[in-house]
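Self-study notes.
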Amino acid sequence: MYGKITRRIALALSFAMLAGPALAADRTVTIGYQTDIEPSKIAQAEGRYEKASGWKINWRKFSTGAEVIAAMASGDVQVGFTGSSPLAAGITRGLPLQTFFIAAEIGSAEALVVRNGSNINSPQDLIGKKIAVPFVSTTHYSLLAALKHWNISPQQVTILNLAPPEIAAAWQRGDIDAAYIWDPALGKVAKTGRVLTTSAEVRSWGSPTFLAWVARNDFAQAHPDFLVTFAKVTGEVNAEYRKDGANWAANSPQVREIARISGSDPADVPALLRGTTFPLLSEQSGQTLLGGGTATALADTSRFLKDQKRIDEVLPDYRPTVTASVVQQAIGH
């Protein structure tokens, strides 16, 4: 399955430069999103991006970041939401993308859950078990990093490449012993499982992951004003969460909107939001994020993926694939 994803991205890349920007004269943009729990879902649900920019937005839902990256490579999607691992893999292979906003520094919103009754009481009990994870995702990276931390070789477990909906179904059938996943699948498997570790803990071990908004280079060059407006709206909704999110409950309108767009159980949303950091607009260009930390994290992730034989090469410098200019303009917009 991983090979199929790799070939699909490579094929898309081969046509990317010929296809050119998938831009419409009537100010229409296609944006790829995923089901992760984060505040921008509120702005998406309420149409804030359209109102602020004056653009028509075609929102396309994807199950994994690898799918988002493949669609952006082909030009079908101009702006996308993806995790650090598929992003690192994509830009290392030469995809014409730039990161312009860090949506989230992942914490407990992504977790490795073990099935009740699977006799997995400690990390070493994973040996010989079946673990499901979407390949080339942030959870895949975190799983491999966790196994390395526990001195468990990936060859000592069976790692299955399944998309989130497939993981939920496989869990229900009893086909897998553990899964490293995000919501809504996380909420479903956690009902009959136990969290063994989270991406917050894996971050503390030196392997951080993040979620980002990225744009095709051609779209960014042709329509910088749209990205500035997009960043401003995203920053505003992140600020709303930073200010009032502690009071958001399952019946709060904001939580209901996030749950509707992501397909999650509203009861799961507040805790998952608390498990993740959503940087404010004023924090984006700092040294830990777009000012340097993001490029470093992409380089570190790429080196890890190369060590795991997920990619063949590592770029000498990832800084050209990250820009702070969009958020800087949004602050003064």
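Second protein, same conventions, sequence then structure:
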Amino acid sequence: MHWLAIGLGAAIGACLRAWLGRFNPLHSWIPMGTLGANILGGLLIGLALVWFERMGSGTVSLNAKLFIITGFCGGLTTFSTFSVEVFNLINDGRMLAGLSLVGLHVALTLLATALGVYFFRFVL
């Protein structure tokens, strides 16, 4: 049953990621769809971690956790697409743009995760 929860969550997350992928780059080297999906996924996983923590380990089923965290957030975020985008920049001789894209993804996604955690802990 766990695989079904993960699969359904992943399908929904991947569909959202595909929809976000339609957005044009902010600059020629910043694909907003991929960056947006990773930032949104970071924010949502931060919120989910605190929500599950507050609900207590016995209250939320393992299937719900797998659906949201492993499935939905895993399907929404995309390391492979991000890797290809960075690789293409570096392969085209745009080293600074590629490394800047890495920095943007890592910094903004971690910031979004922290924002999700702290927002839920201290505001809600």
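Instructor comment on the second fold: The two ends are 32 Å apart (CA to CA).
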